[in-house]
């Protein structure tokens, strides 16, 4: 009996050593296995991706995340500290048994040499990891980092740049996005598009229509309209033709 127990222990020790070597060279593999515990829906419906995004918009700093029960939320915290844990008092509540009651926090700091979002572990039982590396001290987060709290794994994104203003969408494309009355799907309103096309082809007729609907006055009608001005007036005209939905 003693010999059997000794062989069993040797076998388990050997397996443990193999596991250690595997983890040393492929630590991300364990993260992927643990990530499967985050799945709240059947596999055939797709994996739910969890994330937390830090946003700096001028003097306002906030977080956008779906970590709390999978629902996207925008969270503004006056001290710029978002606590994460299993306790309901945490700013970001996670109902995971492997996550400590007060597990970690993400803090935005701007009065230091390297401003940014930092991850701090609260000496949690199961640890906090950034890209498979344990967070023994505050770690400055980078866009795209993978964070693991216990068995909960999520991505961190960051946006500290000013919003980019995109060019105006062409009128022809806008007309294809106008929904028909009583329909939930965006369809091409061919009759409105044809009317606009005919107006654009004849400037004199266009100006007369503008007079009728009082979009321009008589003095403006006598001035040659640029292509951009024509497009702007046409947009205004057809916006008024779209029936309102209650």
Describe it.
The chain is an alpha+beta fold and 246 residues long. The protein is built from 7 helices and 12 strands. A 7-stranded mixed β-sheet has the order 3-2-1-12-11-8-9. Helix 1 packs across helix 2. The chain is elongated and about 95 Å long. The relative contact order is 0.09.
Name a few traits of the molecule.
246 residues; alpha+beta; single chain; 33% helix; 12 strands; 7-stranded mixed sheet; 5-stranded mixed sheet
Compact description:
It is built from seven helices and twelve strands. The chain has 246 residues and is an alpha+beta fold.
Contiguous runs where pLDDT drops below 50 for at least 5 residues: 39-45, 185-189
Structural class: alpha+beta
Give the percentage of residues in beta strands: 15-25%
What pattern of helices and strands is seen along the backbone? HHEEEEEEEEEEEEHHHHH
- Amino-to-carboxy terminus distance: 81 Å
Q: Largest beta sheet: what is the strand line-up?
A: 3-2-1-12-11-8-9
The profile of the biggest β sheet is: 7 strands, mixed
Summed up, the helix count is 7
Let me know the number of strands. 12
Helical content (DSSP H or I, runs of 4+) = 25-40%
Any idea what the radius of gyration is? 30 Å
In quaternary terms, these chains amount to single chain
Q: Report the average pLDDT across residues.
A: 77
**Which of globular, elongated, flat, extended, rod-shaped describes the shape?**
elongated
């Amino acid at each position: 009996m003693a010999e059997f127990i000794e062989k069993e222990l040797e076998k388990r020790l050997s397996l443990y050593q193999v596991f250690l070597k595997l983890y040393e060279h492929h630590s991300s593999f364990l993260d992927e296995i643990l990530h499967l515990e985050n799945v709240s829906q059947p596999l055939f419906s797709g994996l739910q991706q969890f994330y937390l995004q830090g946003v700096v918009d001028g003097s306002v700093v906030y977080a956008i995340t779906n970590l709390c029960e999978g629902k996207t939320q925008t969270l503004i915290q006056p001290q710029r500290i978002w606590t994460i844990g299993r306790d309901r008092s945490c700013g970001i509540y996670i109902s995971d048994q492997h996550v400590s009651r007060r597990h970690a926090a993400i803090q935005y700091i701007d009065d230091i040499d390297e401003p940014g979002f930092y991850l701090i572990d609260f000496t949690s039982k199961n640890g906090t990891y950034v890209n498979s590396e344990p967070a023994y001290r505050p770690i400055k987060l980078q866009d795209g980092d993978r964070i693991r709290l216990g068995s909960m794994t999520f991505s961190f994104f960051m946006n500290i740049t000013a919003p980019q203003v995109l060019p105006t969408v062409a009128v022809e494309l806008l007309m294809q996005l106008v929904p028909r009355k009583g329909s939930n799907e965006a369809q091409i309103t061919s009759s409105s598009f044809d009317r606009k096309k005919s107006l654009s082809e004849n400037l004199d007729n266009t100006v007369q229509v503008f007079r009728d609907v009082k979009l321009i006055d008589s003095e403006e009608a006598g001035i040659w309209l640029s292509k951009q001005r024509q497009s702007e007036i046409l947009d205004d005209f057809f916006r008024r033709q779209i029936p309102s939905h209650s």
